[in-house]
Structures are given as structure tokens and as C-alpha cells.
Specification:
With about 300 residues, the chain is an alpha/beta fold. It has 2 domains: about 130 residues, Rossmann fold (3-Layer(aba) Sandwich), CATH 3.40.50.2300; about 140 residues, Alpha-Beta Plaits, CATH 3.30.70. The chain is built from 9 helices and 9 strands. The strands form 2 sheets. It has a 5-stranded parallel beta sheet, sandwiched between helices. It has a 4-stranded antiparallel beta sheet with strand order 7-8-6-9. A hairpin with a 2-residue loop joins strand 7 and strand 8. Helix 2 runs parallel beside helix 3. The longest helix has 26 residues.
């Protein structure tokens, strides 16, 4: 899930450039305006620093010593922690030709700038891009995140499912959807306990879940996971890990004992070859869940 910067902290800009003079000139522009400026000198170092620091915007040089800046942009766009709302600007030595510009835009760059760079123009562009990012993040958070858990709503999960499925299709990876609900006795009379469990599940996935997975709340006690590069066996292992983590947690209301889950699965070994879309996967996994008998009725 994408992360948002605190409004009380200055925006973080990651400058990726192995040319010291050029990088320092850009750094001085933003540092003078109170931005937190981070540096990387190669493409691989940029990806590592991005994962560690979660920048608000990137300024990538196209001619990096190891990986082309356009390819780094493409990899960042494929990372669900950034998505399409993180501004990425690619710079290049000399004039920006049409072919290079189209390649950069195709990789997801917000702008492609040739040198010499007009510092004032660059600063104003980044400022405008970040304002747009904050507005988009606020709208997305309100529409797509569940207030109680911080996980995706049904609508939000459906959107992330499309993004994950699109990437899985390009990579010919497996995708599995899991819909599960915890089993608790006399559920109707245990609203307080149920709500605390919902919060625990949300905390678990925010702190221990895989960054590549999209997790959403589909109902009062029903959750969905879109897990890329995961088979149905991997989905079963994920649920077992969740049960183990929740069983060892201290429950706020004093409840104890191992929490069990019913779960329905629907997966495809190669999404590119599949005839289903992500929304259909969620519906079929939910249908499979409802076919599983509760533990209280199983002998």
C-alpha cells in the first residue's frame, strides 16, 4: 500500500545521478527551500534507498552507470508502495529528444527534462506535482481505506487487484485471491471482541504483511487478499502465519485461545493466460468461503 508523508515533515526528494556537479546543483535548489534531499549514484542504489526512505518524489538521470534511468522509473512504478501518484522526473544530458521523451513518459515519468536545467522551473514543477500527490492521496485514502483497520475497502481492493493483476499478466506470474473470515463463538453477542479482532488483523497486515500484497476489508469480519506470485499452497501458508501471530498476541478484552479461519481460494497459475478479471477472482474466492462449513458445524 502506498504511504503518505506526514504534513509536518518536509518533502523528501531522492536525486539519482552519478555526475557530482549536476547532482549538487539540483540538490542545492531543493535544500534551499527546506526539502530533505537524499542521494543515490546508481540505479540499484536508488531502488535500495527508495525502499528504506520512501521518498515523496524522484529526480532520475537517464544515463546511470548500471541501469538506465527509464528502467528504474519503470521498476518504481511496478512497486505498489509508489504507484502512479509519486512524481518521477527524468533528466538527460543535452536536449530532450522526442523519442527519449516518449520512452520516459511510457515508463511512467511525470516529466522529462534536458540540460541545462532551469532550477526555478524544476522547483515549481516539483512543488505542483507534490500538491497534486497530496490531494490524490487524500481522496484515495478517503475512498479506498477502511477507517477502522487502515486496510483497503472493497472498492480499494478491487482497484489494487487490477493493478496487481496487470503486472502479473506482464510477468506471467500466478495470482491468488483469498477471502477469509475468523470463526468466533456466538458472534452476534461478541461485537466488542469482534471489533478488537478486526483492528488486530489490520495491525498485523500493516506491520508484517508483504508490501506486494493488497489487503482489504470486504465485510464486518471478512477480508480479502490479492497476492501476486503466490500459489494456493502459498495462500494456505499465509493464513497459517496469520493464525499463529494472532494466537500469540495479547487480546485487549482478555480473550485467549487460538483463532481459526475459514478461507476460500481462487487462483490462476498464469494470469496472462486466465479468462478471469480481478473482480471475478474476489467474487469466486468469496463464494468458495461461503461453501466452507463453520467449525461449529463440522464433526
Amino acid at each position: 500500500m502506498e504511504q503518505q508523508s506526514s504534513p509536518t515533515l518536509p518533502p523528501k526528494i531522492l536525486i539519482v545521478n552519478d555526475q557530482e556537479w549536476s547532482a549538487r546543483s539540483v540538490e542545492s535548489i531543493f535544500a534551499a527551500e527546506g526539502y530533505t534531499v537524499l542521494r543515490a549514484f546508481t540505479g540499484e542504489q536508488a531502488l535500495l534507498r527508495a525502499g528504506e526512505t520512501m521518498p515523496d518524489a524522484f529526480i532520475l538521470d537517464r544515463q546511470l552507470p548500471d541501469v538506465d534511468g527509464v528502467e528504474i522509473c519503470r521498476r518504481l512504478r511496478a512497486d505498489p508502495r509508489y504507484g502512479a501518484t509519486t512524481p518521477i522526473i527524468i533528466t538527460t544530458a543535452g536536449q530532450a529528444g522526442r523519442t527519449q521523451r516518449l520512452e520516459a513518459y511510457g515508463a511512467g515519468a511525470w516529466d522529462f527534462i534536458g540540460q541545462p536545467i532551469d532550477g526555478e522551473t524544476l522547483l515549481l514543477k516539483v512543488r505542483t506535482f507534490l500538491e497534486a500527490k497530496r490531494a490524490l492521496d487524500a481522496v484515495r485514502a478517503e475512498a479506498f481505506l477502511d477507517e477502522d483497520t487502515g486496510l483497503y475497502t472493497r472498492r480499494g481492493l478491487a482497484l489494487r487487484a487490477r493493478e496487481i493483476a496487470s503486472e502479473a499478466g506482464r510477468r506471467h506470474q500466478a495470482v491468488t485471491c483469498i477471502v477469509f473470515a475468523p470463526e468466533m463463538p456466538v458472534l452476534e453477542s461478541a461485537i466488542a471482541s469482534a471489533e478488537s479482532l478486526v483492528v488486530e488483523i489490520g495491525n498485523f497486515f500493516r506491520t508484517a504483511g508483504r508490501a506486494a500484497d493488497a489487503v482489504g476489508r470486504l465485510g464486518p469480519l471478512e477480508f480479502g487478499i490479492i497476492a501476486p506470485a503466490t500459489s494456493e499452497d502459498g495462500a494456505a501458508q499465509l493464513l497459517e502465519r496469520l493464525e499463529t501471530a494472532l494466537a500469540s498476541a495479547t487480546r485487549p478484552n482478555g480473550d485467549s485461545g487460538r483463532i481459526k479461519f475459514r478461507a476460500g481460494y481462487f487462483g490462476t497459475p498464469d494470469f496472462a493466460e486466465s479468462a478471469v478479471d480481478p473482480l471475478m477472482m474476489i467474487e469466486r474466492a468469496g463464494a468458495a468461503l461461503r461453501e466452507v462449513a463453520p467449525a461449529s458445524s463440522r464433526r
